[in-house]
Design brief:
Blueprint lengths: L5 H5 L16 E2 L11 H12 L12 H9 L6 E4 L1 H13 L5 E3 L6 H9 L3 E3 L11 H7 L4 E7 L11 H13 L3 E5 L3 H4 L13 E6 L12 E4 L2 H10 L7 H11 L2 H25 L3 E2 L6 E5 L3 H10 L2 E2 L1 E4 L5 E6 L3 H17 L1
Parallel strand pairs: 1-11, 3-4, 3-5, 5-6, 6-7
Antiparallel strand pairs: 2-8, 7-8, 9-10, 10-13, 12-13
Bound molecules: pyridoxal-5'-phosphate (PLP).
């Protein structure tokens, strides 16, 4: 057997439960995806691309990154397209972490933060979120010291859903900048939360913002994301990304999705202004604790989350077990349209009544 690096041998796989996720059989509330298709413009553009007979030609990006920068509200040159948000995270970890370096990842966080840091051989420092889902600011600030090379902030947090006030992000950026430590601000759910650190990139050259087209835009199958940072940083990161890492389906889908922002916004409005309050009201009535969320999902704390997850599955809905602030298993449910939410509430009502 080929001998891979010992630290890779020691690592575990990130194997999300992807098998059997048929949307014909189940309502998919397990991966924080859109529950409705992307803009019809995306479908049309992808069809056109396939018919153009350019699938045998290497990707060509044209003005893609300028268009992304325009959407993100930053200058041209300050955005880099990536193959999903995951690739942005990975490239930043590769750019900043070596074996033995320290990385601060407040717990709990998104799996790829641990995976990409682990591949680099970094030691992970984990200040813990509070019981009410609030961010451990003092603990994080106190951990900023020599040897730390990167801080990964997930805002809103996945899986908790809770937010970090931008003033607190700035306190971290300031202290980190003094010590030349990079900060990755993961904004995968930006379209839902509207929380962003992108206005701080001019002031803090140690800041990277990672975003994705996977969630609110619904382009997850194409793998489409981007990083926003100072132009010099983007230049450095683009040495790590391969010249064709982003495929033409992603390019085509992104450009078409950006032509139909209204489609994305109307979904976000339904999720955040109609579905989410309805679900929260139901859970409050039933006495189920959930962390305050700024994203399209809620993390529910219950006595036996595995059993409830299974019962919800037998009602035709997939949800996902995820750790709470303390590392104990909880149940994360994505929020979709009103119809989806009504279906989930009905199933949950039945399951809770059986207990
Ligand atoms: C916090 C967070 N960051 C990044 C990503 C990665 O997004 P993508 O699917 O575009 O790689 C996700 C996806 O679930 C996420 O939850």
């Amino acid at each position: 057997m080929a001998k891979v690096k010992p630290r890779i041998q020691k690592m575990s796989h990130y194997r999300p439960p992807l098998e059997g996720r048929s949307s014909k059989d189940y309502l998919l509330l397990d991966f924080n995806e859109r529950t409705t298709p992307a803009s019809p413009k995306v479908k049309e553009a992808l069809r056109k691309f396939i018919d153009s007979e350019r699938t045998q030609v290497y990707p060509e990006y044209g003005n893609l990154e300028e268009k992304i920068a325009e959407y993100a509200g930053v200058k041209p040159g300050q955005a880099m397209v990536t193959s999903g948000g995951d690739q942005g995270i990975d490239i930043i970890c590769r750019a900043h972490l070596d074996e033995g370096d320290k990385v601060i990842i407040p717990f709990p966080s998104f799996a790829m933060h641990y995976q990409s840091s682990g591949i680099q051989g970094a030691n992970i420092l984990e200040p813990k979120y509070e019981e009410d889902g609030s961010f451990p600011l003092d603990e994080t600030l106190n951990l900023i010291s020599d040897g730390v090379r990167l801080i990964i902030l997930c805002n809103p947090n996945n899986p908790l859903g809770s937010m970090i006030p931008i003033e607190d992000v700035e306190k971290i950026l300031k202290k980190a900048k003094e010590k030349e430590i990079a900060v990755l601000h993961d904004e995968a759910y930006f379209e839902f939360s509207r929380i962003t650190a992108k206005d701080l990139i001019e002031k803090y050259d140690n800041l990277y913002v990672v975003r994705t087209f996977a969630k609110a835009f619904g382009l997850v199958a194409s793998r489409a994301g981007y990083v926003v940072s100072k132009e010099n940083n983007i230049q450095e990161l683009s040495k790590i990304r391969g010249p064709y890492d982003v495929n033409m389906f992603a390019k085509t889908a992104i450009l078409a999705a950006l032509e139909d922002i209204v489609h994305m916004e109307s979904y976000v409005k339904e999720v955040m202004e109609v579905s989410k309050p309805k679900l929260e009201e139901f859970l409050e009535k039933r006495g189920v604790f959930f962390y305050p969320s700024r994203a399209n999902y809620l993390l529910l704390k219950m006595k036996n989350p595995e059993e409830i997850t299974e019962k919800i599955r037998s009602e035709g809905i997939l949800v996902r077990p995820k750790p709470d602030h303390d590392g104990k298993e909880a149940m994360r449910v994505s929020i979709g349209t009103l119809k989806d939410t009504e279906k989930f509430i009905k199933a949950m009502d039945k399951v809770l009544a059986l207990r």
